[in-house]
Amino acid sequence: MSDIRAVRGMNDILPEEAACWQHLEATVARLLGGYGYGEIRLPIVEKTALFRRSIGEVTDIVEKEMYTFDDRNGDSMTLRPEGTAGCVRAAIQQNLLGVPRRLWYSGPMFRYERPQKGRQRQFHQIGAEVFGVATPDIDAELMLITARLWRELGIAGGVQLQLNTLGSLASRARFRQALTVYLREHEDALDDDSRRRLESNPLRILDSKNAETQRLLDGAPLLSDYLDDESREDFARLCALLDAAGVPYTVNTRLVRGLDYYNKTVFEWVTDHLGAQGTVCAGGRYDGLVEQLGGKATPAVGFAMGLERLVLLLQAFGCAPAPTPPDVYVLAVGDAAHSAALVATEQLRQACPALRGAACGGGSFRSQMKKPTRAAPG
Amino acid sequence: MRGRQFQEPDEKADKSGARIALIWGEDEVAAGTVTLKPLRDGEPSQQQTLPLAELQQALGLALA
Q1: CB B12 to CB A328 under 8 A?
Q2: In principle, which of A10, A20, A106, A330 could form an S-S bond with A126, CB 3.0–4.6 Å?
Q3: Pure H helices in chain A
Q4: Do B21 and A331 touch (CB under 8 A)?
Q5: B56 has a chain A CB within 8 A of its CB
Q6: pTM score
Q7: Which residues of B touch A331 (CB under 8 A)?
Q8: DSSP code of residue A37
Q9: In chain B, which residues have their Cβ closer than 8 Å to the Cβ of A326?
Q10: What percent of chain A is predicted at pLDDT more than 70?
Q11: Does ipTM come in above 0.85?
């Protein structure tokens, strides 16, 4: 067994830490339930074509990061790298569209990235998606839910909301053209990744971490100058709603998100408490995706939060709950005593269902007195 | 199982976080009793051996 170890970037979560995960997951589930979101449980494996068509062919995820394999029938399958595509697929397939629909999901996602603190190859997200509402009040609702969540978890002081609007598909196309013209004039100054994206996906160059490229972008056309009136009005209304609700935010005009399907609103909750890995929750509007995947045109907006990073943040803020210790610890010496203890404690559990009891195994009394350190709570 | 074996606080037992140990030894089995030993500082009651029928009540008081 010594040579069989967990796959790099895929981690065990031990009981001591699981208490924090349970607290986080239970808080999110209760909160989303309170806003009328219904849980949907989705498969981890989907057909590869779903992600190629939704996330975009020329994205880091689809180009470099997906766990893709042929199943025994020769069909290309992929471990989901994110949750929205599968949720949209299910909403279309299960006829959930046509009325406003609020859904949430939770579970592991898979991306072949370089593992580091807060970034794993198997990572966990909770996401929410709303179908059938085109107005920005629902965008605001998603931000209010997450703002409330941070308050309930005790980490509101560690996260900031950043917003942008990408405009309609038409206004994005006009901006894309202008950006491409500008960047082509300075092609020699671009980093390799950005030069490659110049043809395929120039908007993603705005995301570039390269300092030289970022300097070049200071003189580039601004997305905000190319917005259509409707996107501009919706964004102003969203900002007004957030102001009225007392949720602080920053407009970040270079926020474009790494996925192709977004339009209009995009947002991120970022933190500077976790080093370089700053985003704990991100989302946006994707009004074209349902139709793109074969459903009836339906406006949609959603977010996903990364649980690994939120657990780190809870720990950094001292808001991670300690595992609940048992109320009683049972020690028994000898076969007859083990039987008596088993029967008596079972009766006790019957009478007091909330009692948390841990029982030691067999062995001498001396060794039993040493075992409670390893007793699993509850 | 005599009380003297539990008079020294056992650090490792303490680390379980449990507030009370329930102990069954030969004497307890023979007598139909159980021994309650407080594991935490500040627990009000002392170690006591009592009939099984009184366990639930005693535990309720000790954990309250």
Answers
A1: no
A2: A106
A3: 15-34, 48-55, 60, 84-93, 136-153, 169-185, 192-200, 211-217, 229-245, 289-292, 307-316, 335-351, 365-370
A4: yes
A5: yes
A6: 0.85
A7: 21-24
A8: P
A9: 16-18
A10: 93
A11: no
